[in-house]
Each structure stands twice: as structure tokens, then as C-alpha cells.
Amino acid sequence: MNLDFISKIDYRKAFILLGLFIVILMSGLSINYSMTEDARVHHEHGKRILDYFKGKNKIAQLSPLDKKGKYINISLSQEHLEKGMNGFGGFFDLLCNFLYQFFGFVGEYEFRNIISAIIGFLLFLFCGLIGKELGGWRLGIITLVFVVLTPVLFGQAMNSPKDIPFAAFYIFSIYHVIKLLKELPEISFKRGFFLVFNISILINIRLIGLVFLGNLGIAFFLWWFIENYQQRFKNIVLKDIFLLLLKISGIAILAYLATAIFWPYAQTNPLIVPIDLFLKATQYKGFVSTQIFEGVWRNSYDMPWYYSFKSLLFISMPLHLIIGMLLIPFIYVKTDSKIKLYSSFLLFTSLFPLVLLILGKANSYDHSRQFLFTVPPMIVVCTFAWSRFKVFMSKYIKSKVILPSILILFLLEPLQFMAKNHPFEALYFSPLIGGVSGAYGNYEIDYLGFAIKPAVDWLENNISNTDRHEPVRVRMYYGEQLKIKYYLDKIPNLEYVAVREDSPDWDYGVVMLTEAKFDKDLDKNWPPNNTVHKVTVDGVPICFIVKNNFKVDTIEALEQKLSKQPTENGYIQLSLMYYNKESYFKSIEASQKVVELNPKNSIAYNNMCSAYNILLMYERAKYAGEKALEFSPNMTLATNNLKISNEGLNRRKNNKFTKEEYLRLGYNYYSIKDYRSCILINQELLKVEPKNSIAYNNICSSNNMLGNYEKAIEACNKAVTIRPDFQLAKNNMKYAKSQIKNR
């Protein structure tokens, strides 16, 4: 676009200065952003990869596939999570953890945000460099401005553990392909190296990066076709084509194999692992999200076919880009054939992955942010489309100020939103749907938790300074708990607590708007009762801080009420009260009463799962947890409790229980008169510790209760043999003998 009304400047220097300003700005702003819902999982994955390369352990090399060759469900337990995450290379997570060793004075997740912001800046920078390849440094500057003033991309760049790094290496790879197309038929070592490096990291971060190997081949074919078309394919030298194909194939093969360099699991079989996991990706069902789209709550596997197109290329796009997409045909009006090739390649890299997403019917949620990488190439295309439109219209509009002025007005809208709503740039919605107000109740707004840190900041500034001797207790129900605990732990007068809503053991709660999926009547239930503060974006509340006004009956008073009028909520409350008193069997009994009233009450099953976990009765806990998730698939507490159950079962199966755990579990079964289970548990203990006299005595006592007196005497004899002064065993044996005598 010719901006002749601006005085003559060195656009290359201007590009560099603008880039320096942006990287400093982004690095400084990044610490204002919350850690996201999935940050912990990826960060810990990076730690395990770093431990592998340090030689500490080989957890990062364990297979993410089960015995049947299918993806492990990472939601089942910590062990499943650790194995399942090995299906990702985790380059960005490794990079953050490696660098953090030298910058320990910064908070872990603040440091990740800084690195994410730098990677995000490089993404923006290379968009500008691609613009420069299409139309010079001036177009490069405009492209850089266009991409920075895409609020969703700018906001995501500050704290994304996977989407932005993948998008960055995607655009790096595109840049080097365009440079390759300009240099062909020469292929320099430098270009080959950069292509191998960037494509290998791309695949490492997400397996869909394998598609870029096809993009490389398509780009080469289009170059060859255009080069030979005008000559009617008459001067083709097969030897030269063969050598070029060999070099391109070599780049692709090396990029594929290099994927394993920073990926421990892929190192087990660099040739097979990436493609094997890619082909099995559609089997993965480890995460299902319920999200609102077009005012309807939908399963993430049940979104309409156009979900990704609308989410990425319309409702989250500012006007200058939406208009730019409409102007794309002008790219093909009187434009050099090679520039058309580069533009077409960019357009293909933006749209083709979305077509694959539709055809593959993949899991898609949170505005298809997993495919956010398709947006930057489209932004470059839109910028170039504006430029070509300006050239076309110059025939009809003599003024060189009108179109640039109109474009600047369009750019002011996202700029104003970003300045007004920092650090919520990622929650931008197009004016064509009414902005954030239009999205409220129609589209998911803050799934990742951008509002959590601002909510904690408000609590610190307004609540933590009260004249209390003890810290203010804060809870949050939805999602990854570390995203609030991490910040609360830094504030002396605020304390994170993991308790239920219907409990007196918290003072303030942070409630995310996305929790509406559990109570979908927005008009009647939002904001929640007792709201003391709202975190807003453009005046729309996305997060609420509520004060706890819960009043507690005594257990006796509540039981008396329930004896006259049984209610689900009443027994849920009673279950919690017993739980807090550590009367776990009583808590379970109250939850069972709830199930009698409503067999599909997921809260009751979750409470039972939690209580059984504490009692180490993991088989029963697992059943209860699975029932809770059957009726409420997105129940985070139940998911976490079920993880504990599965981990406990695995520890017991692998004989990793301690002596105290075996004895406590046996006692718990004895307490509920499940004597056979008590015997089984103590027999397991004896396999680990053959001379445990208490285990033999417990077997004796359980057999007495079952009337198996001969077996009881046999067990107590062994107990007394091991410990001659064991009076309780002697008494149990005496009782068994008396019962035989009295038959």
C-alpha cells in the first residue's frame, strides 16, 4: 500500500525500530497475564523431558499408548497423564524449563509468560518479514501492525504453552519456504538447515505439523509448474528436476527424523513414532469439553462443521482483517505470477488445515485455538490484499489519503479494545457480532482463565488487608486449581482452600463464567448470589468474586430436619459435615441417602469417591467416581478424585502400599463388617511382610466373626509365635477355641 502522504523514511530501519518496541512491550506486559488452564500439565511435561536429558529418569520416554496400541486416557491418573503427555514432543516446555535454571529469581509461570511473549513476538516479526517478501519493507511494517492489532493473537501470545509456539514455527516454516521459492532452482545449505530445523520443531510441538511436509512438496510443484508453463513444458531437464526432487525430499526426510532430537519417546523409534501417533490421533478421547456456540451448549465432538472457520476467521477477527479477506481476489489482478504463487501458498497454509479438521471430525473447542496457527498466514494475505486493492483503486481515487485514513480508522477499533481491556486482549470479539456483549450467552468467552489473576489481584488489594488474625480463605471450583493457588500462595494474607461450596470453610470464592455449563440458565443465575466484585471485559462480567454466607446447622439439628423431610441438598450438606469431622463412613451413609432420592446425583457419588479414597477403599472409590462422571462428564472434582482412586489401585496392585496403609485398609473393611476383604488385605500385607503379627491377628479376628474358628486359631497361633506377648491375639485364639468347644 503506497503511503505517500507520509514523509520519506527508511522503512527497513522503521521496521527494526517497531520490532524492538513491540518485543520490549510484550515482554513487559506478559507478567500481567494469568497462567492458563493447561499450563501446569505442559510445564510438568517439560520438567520430565529435562530430567530425561539430564539422565535422572526415563519417564519422558514411556509410551503414550496402552497395550492395545491406543492413546492412553490422561484423565485417569497422574501415571496416565505422565505417559499420555509423551505423545507430544514438548519443545517449548523443555525450552522454558531449561532456561528457567538460569533465571530462578522470576516466578516459574511468569517466566513462561515472558518466553511465550518472545516467541509470540517472533511470530509477529516473521509475519512482517513475509509481508516484506511480498511487497517490500513498507508492506512488512503494515503487516506487522496488522498482526499486532489482532487482539486474540496478541493476548494468546502472552501465555500459550502450545498454540502460539506451534503458530510461530508454522510461520517460520512458511517464511523459509517462500525464501526457497525465490531462490530455486538453487537450494542453499542455509535454507535447507532452517527448513529442517523449523519443520522438525513444528512436528515436535504438534503432530499436525507433519502436514507441512506436504506443503513443502506442493510449493515445489507449483514453482515447477509456473516456471515451465509459459514454455509449454518443452525445456524440461529430467536430471535437474530429479536432483531438485532429491534435495527437497532430503529436507523433508531430515526434518521428519530430526523431530526426535528433543522428543524422548520418538527416540525409541524415530522412523515410526511420529507417523504412528499422527494416524492414531483421531482415537484420542482423553478430553471432552462442553462449550456454548451460537447460544447452544454442545459437546466438543458435536460442533457444526463450520465451527473452526467461524471461530477463527470471523467472530474473533477485527474489521480490517474481515474486509481484507473480502479483498483477496484483488491479489490476482495484474500481479506478478511469482507473487501470486507466494500468496496462494499462504492462503493454502491457512485454509487447508481447517478443511482437514472438518474431514477428520476432530475434537474442537475454545474457538478451535488448537488451529490458531491458521490465522497468521491469513493476516499476511489480508495485508497484501489491502495493498493490491489500493493499487487497483488508485485509478479511480486520485487522493492518496482516503484509503489509508479509512484503514487507520479500522485499526483504531482493536487498538482501543486492547488498551482499554488489558490483559484481556484474547477475549476480543468482532464488532460484527456485537463485540463481547454480543458474545455473552452465545459464545465461550474465557475458557482458559484469563480472569483469575485479576480476580486474585482484586482480593489482594481489597480483602487481604482486613484486620484478621488468620488468612482469608479463597476457593475456586472450576478447572485446574493451580491457576489460582499459584497466585494466592504468593500473598501472605490470602490462603487457597480446596473445599466444597456448601461449606463454612471458605471466605471468598472465584467463579468463572464458563461454569455456566453446569447451570445453563444465564439470565436467572448470573451473577451468583453474594457477588462482591465482577471482573469485566468491555463491561461484560466474565468472573465473579462471591462472599460466603453459608450458615451451618449442627449435625443433630440437620439430622432431625432430614428425618421429617428428606432432601438431596440436606443429605449432601450432612455428608460434607461428617466428612469435615473425619467421620467418613457416616459421610458415605449420607451420600447413599442422596442416591436413594436421586440415583443420578453426581455430587453424592463424588463425595463417596472422596471419602472412600481417604479410607483407602479404592475399588469402591473408583466405582463412585465413574458414576459421578457418568452423570456429570465435566465435573473436575470427580475427575481429580477418580485419578486418586486409580493411582491408589495401581499402588496396591504393585505392592507399593506401606504397612500402615495395609493395616488401616484392613481395619476399615473390618469396621463395615466386610471381614472377607479384611482377610484379603492382611494376606496381601503378609506377602510383603511375612512376620507381621498384627496381620495374623486381624485374620484371626475376621475369621472369628465369620465363624471360621479353625482358621482363626491357625492365624492366631502364627501371631503368638512371632510375638509371644501379643495378648490380643491370645484372647482371640481363646475365643475361637471356646466357640469350638461350645458347638
From TrEMBL:
The cross-references to SUPFAM superfamilies, in alphabetical order and at most eight, read: TPR-like
Q: Which domain of life is it from?
A: Bacteria
Q: Name one Pfam family in it.
A: TPR_1
* TPR-type repeats, residues: 568-601, 659-692, 693-726
Report the InterPro entries cross-referenced here.
SGT (IPR047150), TPR-like_helical_dom_sf (IPR011990), TPR_rpt (IPR019734)
Listed under GO cellular component are: membrane; TRC complex
Q: Does the keyword Phosphoprotein apply?
A: no
Question: Which ranges does the record mark as transmembrane?
Answer: 14-33, 111-130, 137-158, 193-226, 241-263, 312-333, 339-359, 371-389, 401-419
A GO BP term here is: post-translational protein targeting to endoplasmic reticulum membrane
Molecular function in Gene Ontology = molecular adaptor activity
Keyword annotations for this protein, in alphabetical order, are: Membrane, Repeat, TPR repeat, Transmembrane, Transmembrane helix
The name under which this protein is listed is Uncharacterized protein
